Amino acid sequence: MQYVLDRAGITLDDVAVVVQNENFGMFRDGNTEYGREERLLNDRTPVVTISHHLAHAYSAFGPSGFDQASVLVIDGCGNAYEDCIDNAPGALVGEVPAGLGHLYFEKDSYYTSAGNSLRTVAKDFSPWGAMGWPLALPTTLHSIGGAYMAMSRYVFGDFSDTGKLMGLAPFGRPGRFGLSLFELRDGQVLVCRDSLREFRTPARSRTALKSNFQYYADVALWVQSEIEKALLYVVRDRFLRCPSRNLAYAGGVALNAVANARILRETGFERLYIQPAAGDNGLAIGCAYYGWLQVLGRERVAGTGSTYLGAAYPPDRVRQAVAAAGDKVTVTQGTDVAACTAGLLADGKVVGWFRGGAEFGPRALGHRSILAHPGLAGAKDHINANIKFREDFRPFAPSVTADEAARYFECDGYDSPYMILVFNVRPQWRDQLVNVVHKDGSARLHTVTEEGEPTYFRLLKEFQRLTDLPILLNTSFNKKGMPIVETPDEAVSFFLDCALDALVLDDMIITKTECAGAGSDRVRGLIESPRSQDIPLVGMRVASVAVNYVLNHGLDHQAPGGLSGGEGDVVLGFADSPDTVRLQPRVGHLLRLCDGLNSYAGIAAQMGVDLDYLLRLAGPLAQRGILDHAAAPAGAAPAATPAMSARPAGPPDAEFERAPAAGPMNL
Questions:
Q1: Residue 457 CB: number of other CB atoms within 10 A?
Q2: Which of 5, 18, 110, 607 has its CA 20 to 30 A from that of 412?
Q3: Segment 84-96, tens digit of pLDDT
Q4: How far apart are CA 384 and CA 576, in angstroms?
Q5: In terms of C-beta density within 10 A (0-12 exposed, 13-18 middle, 19 or more buried), how is residue 158 classed?
Q6: What is the pTM of this model?
Q7: Are 575 and 514 in contact (CB under 8 A)?
Q8: pLDDT at 592
Q9: pLDDT band at 182 (very low <50, low <70, confident <90, very high)
Q10: Residues 6+ apart with CB under 8 A from 568
């Protein structure tokens, strides 16, 4: 909240009304506290609370640009029936038993617009099923989003994000599972729980996934196919209940870019607007539109379609971030940034691109991007392995000028400004676009116009001048398990910690000097099976530790790294998960010695433990991203062989256990 107030240059006293959504409870206990902490809100500011799918719906309709539209919301779980303020006579799909409205939750909702308001046409609810899932996911029993999340956890273990199923599915073989994930009847999608019981071998690590890759790819393809069938069934049913030319769409399931393209082509709707921040982060936009239109009674204001809602950092702040890197970087200014960057990309360099305010939503759209040549062999694998540190099957998206998109992609003239639609790459171009073509010949398209982002558009045109391709590989400016960079300081830090060749910070082009230390010769990354000479670091996905410990992610060898502090258990929190992990003292001891200089061999000697035991202890930590690794510094002497000692009892994996989650998972 404070970020938004600062961004607008106002205080809370300038705010007419605060509109919020709460999935569970609708703040019946009042608004003065949230999570047992005092809130920024004060008694002078009116607070209105609306239900979950209504907030999603306004987030889609408000900025859609449609004068009249139908609005669809599909996600994992919304509010309970008794908390919904948008229930309407005749709109209920299925049944909610009398007296059990507190146990039935929103799964999909469909509205039609009437002026500046939305009228509910259809709402479907599902009973809660916290312990009822065969795959033990706490969600409702018949949720499309919940089923997708459950199977994502089955395939990817503890480190999943659901979108990875889309990336894995093209590697699968059709027809392996003769099962239905859903029963489709009477306008409802019901999960076939007996089918889910057939899946009994979840992957619990990256190693497990790779060792049985084809099986899990087959699972991913089956799930994606079943999800697409279910979504098409729902959309067609809702269209018949209230037809419209235009559909505005939100909710976490709306991020399924493969299904979205089919909705656009295979249902009765002619135009489709998908909220760029379709998940729960987009609720803020819906709450704001509801407050403006329904609470304050103002007229709807046409949006620009831009997602660049983040703060733009002043030149002084950018210069300070660069100055902090000292002699590790070389700075070039006063040049044509688009032309110079295009030259670097044409030469095969990988560039971090940081300009203006950050995008609102999960997709990098030319303000917080990592860019590369779409056709140079090996670039995709290099970025996955040495910059993103993620699975090698993950695809990358192409950014293309909108005026030439149809030449390269089978997009039928549709624009895809938010990278939420997947289209096939035309066969004659696939060899020249090898880094942005997925296994099945598809690509998640990002179309760029001069009006939408003039500098990024000109970069594409300059790259075309050099290569004849108005297309760049575009991926988010982050690594696996790390949020997209927001500030110039974060951009510089990430640049020095990975194999990026150059960094564009507004009008500066930054490269690494030979003394950078943390440059291409000191790359951090994930190692699944640590070896004696590997140098462990506290993982960058680790966000917090127990209060008595100090955390240092860095590769700055002038300062101590790892953890320092007293003895006892260590509790780690993560940037990408609400879960916490409780570490036993021996693991805490290991982490305290991870300073970016010590190899496992050296750490084993300092701890007085058997090296083989230490490596087995480190393996699960590395697979969960609790440990990253650094390449050995140039000229470093080989690590000494540690003295052997008695191996502690018990398997290494027993040295850590999952602590209680920070709170319920909001799907």
A1: 21
A2: 110
A3: 999 999 999 999 9
A4: 18
A5: middle
A6: 0.82
A7: no
A8: 83
A9: very high
A10: 546, 548, 585, 588
Helix (H, G, I), strand (E, B) or coil at 418: coil
Q: Calculate mean pLDDT across residues 579-598.
A: 81
State the pLDDT at residue 574: 73
CATH code, residues 52-295: 3.30.420.40
The 3-state DSSP class for residue 326 equals: helix
Distance, CA of 495 to CA of 498 (rounded, Å): 6
Where are the domains positioned within the chain? 52-295, 315-512, 524-659
Q: Does domain 524-659 have CATH number 3.90.930.60?
A: yes
Q: Which CATH architecture has domain 315-512?
A: Alpha-Beta Complex (3.90)
Of residues 7, 206, 226, 122, the one with CA closest to residue 623: 206
**Cβ-based neighbours of 307, under 8 Å, separated by 6 or more:** 276, 277, 359, 360, 361, 363, 365, 418
Residue 641 pLDDT more than 60? no
Alpha-carbon span 53 to 18, nearest angstrom: 18
Q: Confirm if 649 and 536 have CB atoms less than 8 A apart.
A: no
Which pair of structure tokens corresponds to residue 278? 């379709």
| Contact between 40 and 2 (Cβ < 8 Å) | yes
CB-side neighbour CA atoms (13 Å) of 286 = 32
Position of tokens 């970016």?
596
